[in-house]
Amino acid sequence: MKNLTTVTWAHAVNNKTYLEAALASEVAMLEADIVLGHLTGHDGPPIPIMAHPPATTSDLSLAEFLSTVAQYNNVNNKQKGVKLDFKSIEVFSKSQELIAPYSKPQVTFPLWLNADILPGPVKATTTPVDPIKFIELGANHPRAVLCMGWTTRYGGNITEGEYTPEQIGSMLRLVNEQKINQTITFPVRAGLACNSQPVLLDLLRETASLNSSMTVWSSEGDSVEVGRLKALILTVGLERTYLDVPHDLAAKLNLPSTDKVKH
């Protein structure tokens, strides 16, 4: 089985220069943010563009981002995957026709559709993306991985917190009530996840039939209990854990770097 912690990431691939650099690099997955806005110097109705709030302009549209990645993948053996982080239900809705050509079964590069759809720790104040609509629209793209997370408020002077049984239970209810029938990964923030092993194990056990995984992410400067995080990852399994954290944290974790794991 594949050691998913060895998958490498580029972040905020939200402009042409960085997209070009990411495609030329060794990274496997390109994470990018999508908002409604305008291409630099263009007017008219807002369209899905690559930018992170509060920005509403970019030199790169979602349409061009996807076509550029697809063109690269058509002529290269090593496929680059994309993780599209939708910042509102409005932009996800307006992106449906743009995503559709790349969610057909004959297209093979990894396609992840990501949004924070539930309120999370520590008393997060960011408004989540509408969960029911996100799941309904995501179902239009059955080959895509649904990457469904929680809003978080952590880092800086907030150095303690965890995913509560209620927050995990809400996610599990959504999965069951919406009858999700595609691969899921749950993005969890490292500093919180390391304090949440029992509930995360429950979540992954209950969703195992959907080939579920967790994607551990972290912001620079987050307080992370490295020993506990390593224990969580090894308990969940390298074959069910993507690791998307700053280099210094990854180095401290010192996880096995072999591509395959024995099971």
What would you say this structure looks like, in words?
InterPro entries: Menorin_dom. It comes from Bombyx mori (Silk moth). This is Menorin-like domain-containing protein. Strands 1, 2, 3, 4, 5, 6, 7, 8, 9 and 10 form a ten-stranded mixed beta sheet that branches. This protein is an alpha/beta fold and 263 residues long. Helix 6 packs parallel to helix 8. It is 33% helix and 21% strand. The chain has one domain: TIM Barrel. It starts with 8 loop residues before the first strand and ends in a 10-residue tail after the last helix.
Defining key terms:
alpha/beta, Menorin_dom, 33% helix, 263 residues, TIM Barrel, ten-stranded mixed beta sheet, 10 strands, Menorin-like domain-containing protein, 10 helices
